[in-house]
Design goal:
Blueprint (H helix, E strand, L loop, with lengths): L1 H20 L3 E2 L7 E2 L13 E2 L2
Antiparallel strand pairs: 1-2, 1-3
């Protein structure tokens, strides 16, 4: 049972990493600014928002 539980945890972690990798973030004022991680817009300093 321990091996199954460990395998499930590893697969869940991998799935979460893959989901994070597909997120993109953009500035609401400068939609041409695109990033793969949250942060601030280099043009205006506003927080980047997740693009849906």
């Amino acid at each position: 049972m321990q091996k199954t539980e460990t395998f499930h945890q590893e697969m869940t972690a991998t799935k979460n990493q893959n989901m994070d990798a597909t997120k993109t973030y953009t500035c609401s004022m400068h939609p041409e600014v695109i990033s793969d991680k949250p942060g601030k817009c280099p043009k205006c300093g506003m927080e980047l928002i997740e693009k849906k």
